[in-house]
Design a protein that fits this description.
CATH architecture of one domain: Sandwich
Structural class: mainly beta
Shape: rod-shaped
CATH superfamily of one domain: Lipopolysaccharide (LPS) transport protein A like domain
CATH class of one domain: Mainly Beta
CATH topology of one domain: lipopolysaccharide transport protein A fold
Largest sheet: 47 strands, antiparallel
Radius of gyration: 56 Å
Number of helices: 1
Number of strands: 47
Distance between the termini: 188 Å
Oligomer: single chain
């Protein structure tokens, strides 16, 4: 062993002794550890507790789900509890935060039961408050079985048994739902209640079901179901869909009330004014009275109402059977119009002022007793409205017009309620007609007054006059001329007719012809006065009269019958003599069982109470042919009862009668139809004489009477 090795061993030994002493002094005696302080536990059953717990779910770089709590407990069965919990969910730029005083979860920690001041808050302002709720972490759905309230800007609501789906962003209140929307001023603009309500925040829709009742200012809305479209901020309602026995009452607009199975209400973007109302299924609405018109009611299977910018009604389209009711106002009667469809228009500030009905139109005016007093049926109607006053009404497509004592029809008709007048015309097809208790008229065009039934008819006029019965109580109206038979109708045709109505005066012009049985009267014009029973035919007038004494034909420039005198007068127009020329004019002519009579004027006087000749009177240039006798003179009278003819001269002119080439002259001649006896009465200055006849120049040929 070398010296350096010995010295190393001695050094190590000394170091070991010194280190051992140092350790001993350092350790000394072992001391007892301090006692452990007990932990303040919330639940002894919990196997672990923690403060300030936090858990989160991260997908990619995004944090989707996070749960924070002030305290956390876990149990042996895997369940957990959270205190002062906050759940944060992030979905499509929105953040949903659920907070509560306490939450508990099962072993899988999917369903959280929240209690105590439960709040669901969305980053865009929606807040939901309740006392008890559950939250499913997988579904992101919160359910609150008890009472719940919510707010979102100017919208608020309440109810019970609510569900909030964070993924779909849909809030549902299943029981006793109430939704309120206020304006910035704090005024309530929408106050709705229903059995349930659903707020779809992505679609900006609010659904309310089961006995929905809504107040919008002074408007009351009721329906089985309601869908409301909301503005993006969900504080303005821009559209309402009402379903199931829907109705609306009141409001500031012109639609005072609305009813239908389905009603759609489209509002302006600010929700203050109604722009359009669509009603379907037993639909009806009533307009509010204003300075232009009283309340009106319109009903139909479907109604589409467009509003003008000032809130007045702009257009109305109705279908599936519509009816418009116009109330009594300003002296106008109540009116109703029914049809299959309606197209109505209006002007800003005035409301509806034009109406067009199509298909099975029925127009009615109601009397004071409530029964229809005037009814018009047609296939179309175009009318104007001036406030409560109905303007001209144009009916088309087969018109039938009826009221008591008046019946009319045509293809087209124009009714003027202001003038109480009716115009009928037809370009083709069925001819227009008018019938009252005195006359039936057919023509291509008829203008009638509904006040007195007077009318103007033109183009191929055909009329039938109702003969007054001999037992009629009112003997002063509707009388036919006495030369006609009572109780039998008479027809008159002409180019034109002016019928005065109330007094029964009728003026026919242009190829006028009156016919009753075998009786006929013709002329350029025929005038009847049915109040007096008079008649005048003028302008190449001719007649065929069927009297009890036989047929009598006559002609003249004028044929006049006067009921008061029971006289038919045939006359010619006076002709002024031409200087140096002899007056020559055609004569009137009457031919019948009592002979052929010609003169400037002939009168047939009818017997009282009988349709027979009482006497004949002839004046100026008289010629009477009876069998083989021909008498001439200035004046003749025939007495039918005695069959006696009396002829006299005028001035210094004598009269004559030719019989079997034998002339008899004198101042006055009287002869009898049934005998050969002739009486001649002379005077002192000129005696009568009888002498053999000499050939005479034939009398100027006269047109034969025109028989019917």
């Amino acid at each position: 062993m070398t010296s350096w090795q010995k010295r190393l061993r001695i050094g190590l030994a000394i170091f070991g002794i010194v280190f051992a002493g140092f350790v001993y002094r350092s350790i000394g005696e072992r001391r007892a550890p301090p006692p452990v302080q007990p932990v303040d536990r919330l639940d002894p059953k919990a196997i672990s507790e923690a403060k300030g717990s936090s858990a989160e779910q991260i997908r990619g770089t995004k944090r989707e789900f996070e749960i924070k709590s002030e305290r956390f407990l876990s149990y042996g069965d895997g369940s957990t509890k959270y205190f002062n919990i906050e759940i944060t969910v992030r979905r499509d730029e929105r953040v949903f935060v659920v907070t509560a005083k306490e939450a508990s979860a099962g072993a899988n920690e999917v369903e959280l039961a929240l209690t105590g001041g439960v709040k669901v808050k969305v980053s865009d302002g929606l807040e939901l408050l309740t006392d008890h709720a559950t939250f499913n972490q997988n579904e992101a759905v919160a359910r609150a079985p008890g009472d719940v309230t919510f707010t979102k800007g100017l919208m608020s609501g309440s109810g019970s048994n609510a569900t909030y789906n964070q993924k779909a962003d849909v809030l549902t209140i299943a029981e006793r739902a109430k939704v309120v929307v206020t304006e910035q001023s704090g005024k309530v603009s929408f106050d709705g209640s229903a059995g349930s309500a659903t707020l779809d925040r992505i679609q900006d829709l609010l659904f309310m079901e089961s006995t929905v009742h809504i107040l919008r200012d002074s408007q009351t809305i009721d329906a089985g179901k309601v869908m409301a479209r909301l503005s993006m901020n969900e504080d303005i309602i821009t559209y309402l869909e009402l379903r199931g026995n829907a109705s609306s009452q009141g409001g500031s607009g012109p639609l005072q009330s609305m009813k239908a199975e389905a009603i759609d209400l489209d509002y302006t973007d600010d929700g203050t004014m109604l722009e359009r109302a669509i009603l379907n299924g037993a639909a009806s609405f009533t307009t509010a009275p204003d300075e232009h018109a009283s309340s009106r009611r319109l009903s139909g299977g479907g109604l589409d109402v467009q509003m003008a910018a000032d809130g007045t009604v702009k257009t109305v389209i109705g279908r599936d059977g519509v009816q418009l009711d116009l109330p009594e106002a300003n002296g106008t009667p109540p009116r109703s119009i029914r049809s299959r469809t309606l197209d109505a228009g209006g002007e800003t500030g005035n409301g509806l002022n034009s109406l067009r009905f199509r298909g099975d139109v029925v127009f009615q005016e109601t009397s004071g007793r409530g029964a229809p007093s005037r009814e018009v049926r047609a296939q179309s109607l175009a009318a104007s409205l001036e406030g409560d006053r109905l303007g001209e009404a144009l009916f088309g497509g087969g018109v039938s017009f009826k009221e008591q004592g008046f019946d009319a029809g045509s293809f087209d008709a124009l009714y003027n309620p202001v003038q109480n007048a009716l115009r009928l015309w037809s370009e083709s097809g069925a001819r227009p007609y008018v019938t009252d208790d005195q006359i039936h008229v057919e023509a291509r065009q008829i203008d009638a007054s509904l006040d007195n039934h007077g009318m103007m008819a033109q183009v191929n006029v055909r009329t039938s006059l109702k003969g007054r019965s001999s037992t009629a109580k009112d003997s002063d109206t509707g009388r036919l001329p006495g030369l006609l038979k009572e109780g039998q109708p008479a027809s008159i045709n002409a180019d034109r007719l002016d019928y005065k109505g109330g007094n029964g005066r009728a003026e026919y012009t242009g190829n006028a012809t009156l016919v009753q049985g075998d009786t006929a009267i013709r002329g350029d014009a025929i005038v009847l006065d049915r109040e007096k029973g008079d008649m005048v035919a003028s302008g190449s007038a001719r007649s065929t009269l069927t009297l009890d004494t036989g047929r009598t034909d006559g002609r003249g420039d004028e044929i006049r019958y006067e009921e008061a005198k029971r006289t038919v007068t045939y006359s010619i127009n006076p002709v002024a003599p031409t200087s140096g020329l002899t007056v020559s004019a055609p004569l009137t002519q009457v031919s019948g069982p009592d002979g052929d009579l010609r003169a400037e004027r002939i009168e047939i006087v009818l017997a009282t109470g009988a349709n027979a000749v009482d006497r004949l009177e002839a004046y100026n240039r008289v010629t009477m042919v009876l069998g083989s006798r021909t008498a001439t003179g200035g004046r003749m009278t025939y007495h039918a009862k005695e069959e006696r003819y009396v002829m006299s001269g005028t001035g210094a002119d004598s009269v004559s009668i030719r019989e079997s080439c034998r002339d008899t002259t004198g101042r006055t001649l009287t002869f009898f139809k049934s005998t050969e006896r002739i009486l001649v009465d002379g005077n002192e200055t000129r005696r009568t004489e009888t002498k053999p006849c000499t050939p005479r120049s034939p009398a100027p040929a006269q047109p034969s009477p025109v028989a019917r």
